[in-house]
Amino acid sequence: MTEPAPVVTQKPTGFRWELLTLLWLAFFLNQADRQIFSVVLPLIRQDLGLTDAELGLIASALVWTYGLLVPIAGFVGDRFSRRNILGFCLLFWSCATLLTGFCATVLQFILLRGIATGGGEAFYAPSANALLGEKYRESRSFALSIHQTAVYFGIILSGIIAGYIGEQYGWQKAFYLFGGLGILLAVVFFIRIPKDNPIVKSGPQKPLLAEIGETARIVIRKPTVIMLTLGFGCMVFVNVGYLTWMPSFLVDKFGMSLTDAGFSALFYHHLGAFLGVLSGARISDHFAKTNPRSRLVVQALGLLLGAPFIYWISMSQTQTMTYIALFLFGIFRGWYDSNIVASLYEVVSPKIRSSAYGLMLACAFLIGASAPYLLGVLKPTLGLTLGLASLSGVYVLGSLFIGSGALCFFDKDRELTE
């Protein structure tokens, strides 16, 4: 009867690191599958003869779908097995990604790349972060930080791999490859990760929509949360517009190959964002010890200081100057990113923090989702150069929203939270 003891003590450790590895790979594909379309967009436009407005609409459809479903995904993750949610959503969006390679019309792209891929990906983050938080209680920050690095690798490497495959073998093959890898990973995930049981809450459970409505009524009474959400929406608007059209911009302006453009559009910016997240977190943590409002101030400054470099990206006449602008834009975007959750938590009760973040995320993505479509509509007349440059104004607007929340409403909202 003493023999099973070593198995019981050793298996959780191995399982936890195996879980982190598999979730890192899933999150990598989550970000990569989202970015493939933007990288091979010039090839799709040339092959299928789609207009810039139609291509922008396809990109916006994914963000709209994600924004509508992510708050529901957060509540669902507290009610059902997170292993099952993660495995099935990975399988679903990977199948949709693979089938996107067979698309030939705008409607097919919207249904498969926009709605199906975006809907599947919306259910990943809430359950993945919650599962990691449970399994790595003694090293939670480390595990979540490792998991977050998949965002940078997924976006950057997808630019290189999808660009190369698209140029050499056709844009369809990029979707086949990443979708096929996701299906294989989903099978491994179901085999290797044991099913978990959802936490059963005491007392009668309210209907899902009732819980969402109750949380919404609480947070909408806090002007600071509204200002943070509007600022978040401005950041998302710029981010999805930049991610969708920047590879095409470099191809058109400098005659770069798709592989080089996919890499350059994403690498320099996200390198800066990585450094910006680290420095922004240290700055805000230092000043927040004496003044919690500092977290919002750092976010507002990140958007305000990043705005000139968005303009510089578009107007630079050389590739080198464009890369420098992309890097500095990333630095200050990182300042903003480092406090998205921390700023919200300063004015929201711990009881509703997860659901409040889900609602803020949903509103921000719904606000920002129209950027790819609008830039696509404006591209034939205004031009992509001026269209991307105009995004700097959206960053300034976001800074004003967050700054007004910090100066006018923060103290009262924080007192009500305490």
Automatic annotation (TrEMBL):
The keyword Nucleotidyltransferase does not apply. Keywords: Membrane, Transmembrane, Transmembrane helix, Transport. GO terms for cellular component: membrane. It is a multi-pass membrane protein. It is found in: Membrane. It comes from the Bacteria. One of its GO terms (molecular function) is transmembrane transporter activity. The chain crosses the membrane at residues 58-76, 88-109, 144-165, 171-191, 225-245, 265-284, 296-314, 320-336, 356-375, 387-410. Residues 19-416 form the Major facilitator superfamily (MFS) profile domain. SUPFAM superfamilies: MFS general substrate transporter. InterPro entries: MFS, MFS_dom, MFS_spinster-like, MFS_trans_sf, Sugar_P_transporter. Coiled coil: none annotated. This is MFS transporter. It comes from Larkinella punicea. The lineage of its organism: Bacteria, Pseudomonadati, Bacteroidota, Cytophagia, Cytophagales.
